[in-house]
């Protein structure tokens, strides 16, 4: 199953990471960002660690995690 739109920052494909959601155009699972956030790191820390488009990471964060994180909850992928 592929993502609904080419503009979607998250890609799901059985050929990449067994269908786990990844950042579009990469093999980096969204769950990695979730793990970073849960361990007290920031989105900027994640961007520094991985060779990935910063705008892509920020868009995924905004769509998936910002509400949960702002309320002080653990985030999940």
Keywords:
two-stranded antiparallel sheet, mainly alpha, globular, 77 residues, 2 strands, Arc Repressor Mutant, subunit A
By DSSP (H or I, 4+ residues per run), the number of helices equals: 4
CATH homology group: Winged helix-like DNA-binding domain superfamily/Winged helix DNA-binding domain
List unreliable stretches of 5+ residues: none
Strand order of the largest sheet: 1-2
CATH topology: Arc Repressor Mutant, subunit A
CATH architecture title? Orthogonal Bundle
Number of strands: 2
Summarize the helix and strand pattern as letters.
EEHHHH
Structural class: mainly alpha
Helical residue percent?
Answer: 40-55%
CATH class annotation: Mainly Alpha
Q: What separation lies between the terminal Cα atoms? A: 18 Å
Q: Which strand-content bin applies to the residues?
A: 5-15%
Largest sheet: 2 strands, antiparallel
Task: Identify the overall geometry.
Answer: globular
Overall pLDDT: 85
List the topology elements:
Elements: E1 10-11, E2 22-23, H1 30-38, H2 43-49, H3 54-64, H4 66-70
Antiparallel strand pairs: 1-2
Helix pairs in contact: 2-3
């Amino acid at each position: 199953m592929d993502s609904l739109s080419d503009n979607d920052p998250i890609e799901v494909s059985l050929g990449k990471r067994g269908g786990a959601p990844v950042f579009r155009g990469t093999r980096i699972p969204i769950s990695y960002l979730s793990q970073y956030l849960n361990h007290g790191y920031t989105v900027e820390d994640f961007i520094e660690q991985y060779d990935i488009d910063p705008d892509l990471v920020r868009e995924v964060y905004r769509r998936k995690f910002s509400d949960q994180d702002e309320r002080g909850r653990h985030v999940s992928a």
